[in-house]
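tool=predict chain=A
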Amino acid sequence: MSIRLSVRDGVATVTLDRPEKHNALDLADARELGRVWQRLRTDAAVRAAVVTGAGSRAFCTGIDRDAVADPDAVPQPHSPFAVEDPLLRIGPKSNDLWIPVLAAVEGMACGGAFYLLGEAEFLIATEESVFFDPHTTYGMVSAYEAMGMAQRMPFGEVARMALMGTAERISGRRAYETGLVSELAPPGGALEAALRCARVLAGYPPAAVQGTVRAVWAAREAARERAMAHAPSLIALGNLPPHRQTDLFHGRPRGAHSAPRIR
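tool=predict ok
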């Protein structure tokens, strides 16, 4: 299994450990990640958590495309009002976990990584980190990802990122300037910076911390839930068929730049 869990001083560290695949998640990893968050719900010794990716090249690049290349891998409902998405339950809040969860980002964070980032209390990254959303490039609707980021970034910034696809990437510095990232750490230092914050939170009275987490999320959830209710039909109506997505993923998309623009 490619999900590692360690606990020390009241802080759980959850590591996506497939660096050779840029920490992309296959279907088994996605299920295991959900189980990890559920396990932490009942562990009173864990009072905060950090999620990160192994290595320095990527935090996470979303779903492993090879894992879902077979149309039967994730059977879809025969309705534009429902969608079977294997990443919908990979986040802590989707598994009813309300200890604070921080994200430590090194390298790339893109696509389905935003399911995780959207459910973290705050993000710590490095200037070398890059954030982008490739969905539109490959004929896919950015729905859940864009909705999660729309609650963290100014409208114009998230719209630009979601629409520009692989043609443009947001640097760690720009992500910090727009509020997506709360702290910039030196190269290789994102995890330690996140653990430092998590240890502080783990030292506070747990009920007060978790109550504050719930309060902050209560302010967000009404708009988030209403938006997410529209996602299945938008995805079903706007996505290209899976084989066309795969063709674009493995080929050169028409109109794409030879190198992505980083800002």
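Residues 206-228 form the longest helix (23 residues). The mean pLDDT is 88.
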